Amino acid sequence: MPRLADHEQRRRQIAEAVWRIASARGLEDVSLRKVAAEAGVSLRLVQYYFGTRNDLLLGALEILNKVAEEHTRAEVGPEADATPRQVLRTMLVGMLPLDDERRTRYLVYLAYFVRSLTDPDLAAAFSAAPPELERLTADLLAWGQQRGEVAPDLDLLPEAELLLSSVDGLQTSLILGQRTPEAVFALIDHQLGRLFSLANVAT
What we know:
By secondary structure, the protein is mostly helical.
């Protein structure tokens, strides 16, 4: 009997084939047969693990979200003497499409976003996704408050949402070549300087 790990590996292998097709040609070009060929497996195996095309798209998105969350949490694994600002900066920079893997991931998310505008099931999947990044970012800001580095009256969750929205826009500008990585780093540092500055404490 195949082990659970084998099943997860197969599902990941098939999902990665979906991502490659979606990042290069969009979700409209994703079919069970093309995914099977891209993954180097049989059509029957794709159907066994995911069923219909719609189930395949939803399943590949769920796996993508899980992989992205795992990568983000790995980035946040700080050294013993790292400050909240350093940990948060590492996380935010890790979200940027600076290598092939992260660029592909970002393009796949764009493909899913465009498709979700006309696909109620995908739109529901996006809406139902828990705001893990927002909570994690807010937790890091709360850590900064505990250390006296972030203003005690800062409303953490809205600030976390604004910060992540800014990084979303910076991802796009990098993909389009509108900003260099160095310029993006400087903007992230500017935002973090604002959040981690005691000059923001109301007097």
